[in-house]
Amino acid sequence: TGSHLAEADSQTEWTDVQKKIIPWKNSTPSLDLETAFQDRAAKLGKSNSRLIVVASLIDKPTNLGGLCRTSEIFGASALVVGSLHYIQDKQFQHLSVSAEQWLPLVEVKPSQLVDYLQQKKTEGYTIIGVEQTAKSFDLTEYCFPEKSLLLLGNEHEGIPANLIHHLDVCVEIPQQGIIRSLNVHVSGALLIWEYTRQQVIKQKQQQ
C-alpha cells in the first residue's frame, strides 16, 4: 500500500515499482492496490482473488505473455514482472491476447525480490515456490491459503538459493514421465488453476 511504500522507501529499492492498472489509467497514483483489486473484481464480475503471481525471474516474453493470459482468465489479483517493457514485445502480446489490459501488472526487478517478498509476508501472504526440494509438498495434497504469493523460477536456473530461504513452502507437481521439468508457464498455470479450484470449492461451502 502507499503507506507501506513510504515507510520502506529509505530501506529498499522495490518501492519504485510501477503499478499498471489499465482500466483505471486516469485514477490517482496513490490508489491503494488492494482497493484496486476489489474494484476490478466488482467491475468485471470476478472473484476477489488474493493470488499474486510473481514472474520477475522469467526471461522469455512468450512465457510471460502466456502467464498474463492465464492469470487474467483465472482472476489472479496481480502479475509481477521484472520489467514492464515486456508488454510491448510482440511475442508477449501474441500470447497474452490483450490480457494485460485487464490484469494489474506490477514491476519488481529480480534484485528487488527479497525486499518485495518480505514486504508481502508482513501483509499476511504465504510465499509459495514452485520447486522440487526435499521438503516440497505434493500439489495434490497442498491447501492454498487465501493470501498466496506464487513465485515462479527462471526458465533455466529455477529459483535461486538466496530466494529459496525466503519461501514459506515449496510445492511440486507430481510427474510420471522421464523428462523431469515442465515449461514454467505450464507449471504456473497448474498451480494457478489449483488455487482457483480450491477457492471456488471454499466459496461454495460457505454459501
From TrEMBL:
This protein's record includes keyword Transferase = yes
Annotated Pfam families: SpoU_methylase (PF00588)
tRNA/rRNA methyltransferase SpoU type domain location: 51-192
InterPro entries given in the database record: Alpha/beta_knot_MTases, SpoU_MeTrfase, TRM3/TARBP1, Trm3/TARBP1_C, tRNA_m1G_MTases_N
- Assembly mode: Monomer and homodimer.
Question: What is the recorded function of this protein according to its Swiss-Prot or TrEMBL entry?
Answer: S-adenosyl-L-methionine-dependent 2'-O-ribose methyltransferase that catalyzes the formation of 2'-O-methylguanosine at position 18 (Gm18) in a subset of tRNA. Selectively mediates Gm18 methylation of tRNAGln-TTG/CTG and tRNASer-TGA/GCT. Gm18 modification can enhance the stability of modified tRNAs.
Protein name (record): tRNA (guanosine(18)-2'-O)-methyltransferase TARBP1
Protein source organism: Mystacornis crossleyi
Gene giving rise to this polypeptide: Tarbp1
